[in-house]
Amino acid sequence: MFRKQGKALTPEEKWMVLQVLRQSLEQQNHSKTEGYQQASYYTGVSEKVVIEIARYFEQTGTIPPMVKPGNRTNHKTLVAPNAIGQKNLF
After folding, report:
1. Of 8, 30, 56, 65, which Cα lies nearest the Cα of 22?
2. Residue 75: burial class (beta carbons within 10 Å; 0-12, 13-18, 19+)
3. Cα 17 to Cα 39: distance, rounded to the nearest angstrom
4. What gap in Å lies between CA 45 and CA 23, rounded to an integer?
């Protein structure tokens, strides 16, 4: 399964990653590293994402919540706060 890069994982996809990882570790008797690599290959997500999902599941017993992809940095404005709402700025 190959996914479009940068697209957020749905809850169903995260559960699928966990199931593939579990199956890989149980059936093949792999080390965790090999299991992460195999789950990454079969699900089409990066190994880092597989590790993050597995770590979160181990700590909380559930999958990570949905997040919106992209940069959400709030940049300071160059406009003076008292100038907002005025018609003639220049």
Report:
1. 30
2. exposed
3. 7
4. 16
How far is residue 33's CA from residue 25's CA, in Å, rounded to a whole number? 10
**Alpha helical stretches, state H, the chain:** 11-27, 32-43, 47-60
18-24 long-range CB contacts below 8 Å, 24 or more apart? 18/53, 18/54, 18/57, 18/63, 21/50, 21/54
Crossing angle between the packed helical segments 32-43 and 47-60, to the nearest 10 degrees: 120
The pLDDT tens digits along the chain (90 residues) read 456 777 788 889 999 999 999 998 888 777 888 889 999 999 989 999 999 999 999 899 888 887 766 666 766 666 666 666 666 545
**Count of other CB atoms within 10 angstroms of residue 88:** 5
Q: What is the pTM of this model?
A: 0.67
